[in-house]
Design goal:
18 helices, 24 strands, 504 residues
């Protein structure tokens, strides 16, 4: 029995010589992975390294092709998620699995509803859900609909749902990808509280600073193999990065660029959008990468969605390549020469049940069609294969379901499909969210090459390092208004940009 406050660091789980193949591609090659009781174990590596595949085997989503798994030194073989759950293993996926129209309590007990006299006992479920949430330090009304909660609170409900099942092992997949700073701090406190109670956690993230602060040990995967397992205390940030990008790997740094100082590719005058943006004006010059920085809720995403016809424009004028454009919907935006890489690629940027090729050609179906909207299969394949090659998209086949690709490779498909439309301006909302530093650098290089052709880029990002690496100029947004316009060469570090954002 684990006494609260004690750390029992004997092994609770061992995965030995794990192998996994998809078709002819071996994605895991004799991987060893051990968890000690009550630790936070970081699992890192480049996109496509095998992190999610290994965890999906551990949680019963995928079956292994080789190797063995032991829990408490007992050999186990998971056929599905239920098998893993019965053994105390739960995963908090990056894409939350809550039913939005149901209450918090109903979600927590979904599939294991409490009953009284043959009927679902809502009162008891609410009571126990409330107790479980308060035990985790979370004050949420169990009767509240999940759709009314923020992303951060929804994630807390997912955790409560796992803990109430007496989970011994929790797996977090990019848990802070969609959280504010405040919500992230609340999550870290909860992780520390669970650790003190003896819960073992796996923490998958591309955010190295978080890993250095929250994890006890780290395992690094590269190309489906385990290249390092060590105590965090024995490593520095540079050590970790070098293991999965290589000593001479890509760097994430700013390069001064030449672009037009006179000609505008996008000009916005007195734009008002859905009460979120109030009479803002700005220009993107030909060849320029213009960043938008600001706190959550400042209106960054609303600008992009307004320009692309998703959010209604109430007032103002838009000029693209000196031509006035009336944009009422996405079709108008595309005809005007705009492309949008949305904030949530899995919900807004991809059709997850379709293949790489089907996603890649989606915006250019009309161009690839002939009589009676029949798609030219040969040309579709040629376009997709060229994109896969040009953008270094790692996939065993263009017919592979896109949900099976890593986050970085999915994002490169989203970017490439819009570039296929030959837009004059690309609108990018968090374009490197949830991807490793190698893929970040590749995406930044794609953006630079696109802008070098005289096109314009409007880039929204919460990562200051990304804005400083990619942008020629940065607008600071506060409460729906532009409060600062800064040339990149005037900023020497992240702290200066952070100060500009916080100052409002």
């Amino acid at each position: 029995m684990i006494v609260e406050g004690e750390r029992m660091l004997d092994s609770i789980l061992k995965m030995n010589k794990i192998e996994k193949k998809f078709g002819e591609t071996k994605v895991l090659k004799d991987v060893d992975f051990t968890l000690k009781r009550g630790e936070v174990h970081a699992l890192v590596g480049g996109n496509g390294a095998g992190k999610s595949t290994l965890m999906k085997i551990m949680t019963g989503v995928y079956s292994k092709d080789g190797g063995e798994i032991r829990i408490e030194d007992q050999l186990v073989d998971f056929k599905n998620r239920e098998d893993a759950s019965k053994n105390g293993i739960e995963m908090i996926f990056q894409e939350l699995s809550l039913v939005q129209s149901m209450t918090v309590a109903q979600n927590i007990f979904l599939g294991s509803e409490l009953q009284k006299n043959g009927l679902i006992d809502e009162k008891e479920m609410n009571r126990k859900a409330r107790a479980a949430l308060l035990n985790l330090g979370i004050d949420i009304d169990p009767k509240a609909k999940v759709e009314s909660l923020s992303v951060g609170l929804s994630q807390m409900v997912e955790i409560a749902k796992a803990v109430i099942k007496d989970a011994k092992i929790l797996v977090f997949d990019e848990p802070t990808a969609s959280l504010s700073d405040g919500e992230s701090k609340q999550l870290f406190q909860l992780i520390n509280d669970l650790k003190d109670k003896g819960v073992t956690m796996v923490y998958i993230s591309h955010r190295m600073n978080e890993i250095m602060n929250i994890a006890d040990r780290i395992t690094i995967l590269k190309d489906g193999t385990n290249v390092l397992t060590d105590e965090i205390a024995n490593l520095c940030l540079e050590d970790i990065v070098s293991f999965f990008v290589g000593e001479n790997g890509p760097t994430f740094e700013w390069k001064k660029r030449e672009y037009s100082q006179e000609e505008s590719i996008l000009k916005v005058e007195n734009l008002t959008i859905n009460h979120a943006i109030s009479e803002i004006s700005f220009e993107v010059k030909k060849g320029e990468i213009l960043g938008i920085a600001g706190l959550m809720g400042s209106g960054r995403t609303e600008i992009l969605e307004g320009l692309f016809g998703i959010s209604p424009i109430e007032a103002g004028e838009i000029y693209i390549d000196s031509q006035k454009s009336t944009i009422k919907n996405a079709r108008d935006a595309i005809k005007s020469g705009l492309g949008l890489v949305p904030e949530d690629r899995r919900k807004q940027g991809l059709v997850l049940s379709h293949s790489v090729k089907e996603n890649n050609i989606l915006p250019i179906l009309k161009k690839l069609s002939f009589i009676d909207f029949v798609i030219d299969e040969k040309e579709s394949q040629e376009v997709t294969k060229k994109n896969v090659s040009d953008f270094n998209i790692k996939t065993s086949s263009i017919d592979k379901k896109i949900s099976l690709l890593s986050g970085g490779n999915q994002q490169k498909v989203v970017i490439s499909k819009w570039l296929n439309t030959n837009p004059k301006v690309m609108l990018l909302d968090e374009p490197t969210a949830g991807v490793d530093i190698g893929a970040k650098t590749e995406i930044i290089n794609i953006i630079r090459e696109y802008a070098d052709k005289g096109n314009g880029v409007l880039l929204v990002s919460s990562e200051l390092a990304e804005l400083l690496a990619a942008c020629d100029r940065i607008l600071v947004l506060f409460d729906g208004k532009i409060v600062n316009d800064i040339k990149r060469e005037e900023i020497s570090c992240e702290e200066e940009l952070q100060h500009a954002i916080q100052a409002g």
